[in-house]
TrEMBL record:
A divalent metal cation binds at residues 40, 88. CDD domains: DAGK_IM. This is Diacylglycerol kinase. Catalyzes the ATP-dependent phosphorylation of sn-l,2-diacylglycerol (DAG) to phosphatidic acid. Involved in the recycling of diacylglycerol produced as a by-product during membrane-derived oligosaccharide (MDO) biosynthesis. One of its GO terms (molecular function) is ATP binding. Its cofactor is Mg(2+). Its EC number is 2.7.1.107.
Length: 133
């Protein structure tokens, strides 16, 4: 049986850290997540597109708000892709057998990526039309 103190002690040692130590370790976990995301073809493609599109947003956008929308929409696609990959990894961790709830979770993650791509595409199309039409 556990003591009251053990019941309050977090399982995750990160929860016991504070200050710069917590930030340092959190940054390490974030970099590990980016490295894990890099193993996904879709994420690599989105990063390569971002390498072109984010600098282009500074040229295409006329105000800081336009630049933020253009660059932010590209970043949003990568963020949603990482979250989709995390959902897929968690589902696969549970098991590879076909289950309707697993399929729904993966399909919804994929739909979120699609919506983020459509949003980014719409923002970029509107900016291009405004700039050149």
């Amino acid at each position: 049986m556990s003591t009251p103190h053990e019941a309050l002690t977090p399982v995750n040692p990160q929860k016991l850290r504070s200050g710069l130590s917590r930030i340092w370790h959190a940054a390490g976990y974030s970099l590990a997540g980016l490295r894990a995301g890099w193993s996904e073809t879709a994420f690599r493609q989105e990063v390569l597109a971002a390498i072109v599109m984010i600098p282009a947003s500074f040229w295409l956008g006329r105000t800081w708000v336009e630049v933020a929308l253009l660059a932010g929409s590209v970043m949003l696609v990568m963020i949603v892709e990482l979250l989709n990959t995390a959902v897929e990894a968690a589902i696969d961790r549970i098991g590879f057998e076909r289950h309707e709830l697993s399929k729904r979770a993966k399909d919804m993650g994929s739909a979120a990526v699609l919506l983020a791509c459509l949003l980014a595409g719409g923002i970029w199309a509107a900016a291009l039309v405004q700039r050149f039409a």
